[in-house]
Design a protein that fits this description.
Number of domains: 1
Number of strands: 0
Shape: elongated
Order of helices and strands: HHHHHH
Helix content: 55-70%
């Protein structure tokens, strides 16, 4: 989990939820809501554990250290210098990065909804286009 990867994953998972909603007849609106809540809860819990340094990705070395990974997404694995120094976030709880992290965590539902909305919009357009081509008028 990282602030760079999470929005992309949430958009993709939102699209997956929309596809399930569309293509599985027994997939009710309540189940969609439950799946959305479960997805967000998992992302918030795992992301928070990373940010608080309770989780890390050991097989990628120092690039996978909790908070460092959340901000820099392991970018040093491709030979780039990490753009964000997270050391100040440990000494000052009201550091700008910590406040930005809270704002980013609270934006997760927006990304999930965006994935659901984009996928449903594309499916509706495709459905309308398909039926307009095969009109029986």
């Amino acid at each position: 989990m990282s602030f760079l990867l999470d929005p992309l994953l949430l958009i993709a998972l939102g699209a997956g939820i929309a596809l399930l909603d569309r293509h599985i007849p027994s997939f009710s609106k309540k189940f969609t809501l439950v799946l959305t809540i479960i997805t967000l809860t998992i992302f918030w819990i795992v992301g928070s554990l990373f940010y608080l340094d309770y989780l890390s990705i050991p097989w990628i070395g120092d690039a996978g250290r909790g908070r460092h990974f959340m901000w820099n997404s392991g970018i040093e694995l491709i030979g780039l210098k990490p753009p964000i120094d997270v050391s100040a976030t440990y000494t000052d709880p009201l550091n700008k990065l910590n406040i930005a992290a809270i704002l980013l965590f609270t934006s997760y539902p927006i990304f999930l909804y965006l994935g659901i909305h984009i996928c449903k919009t594309l499916m509706e357009r495709r459905h309308r286009t398909c039926f307009s081509k095969h009109s029986f008028n």
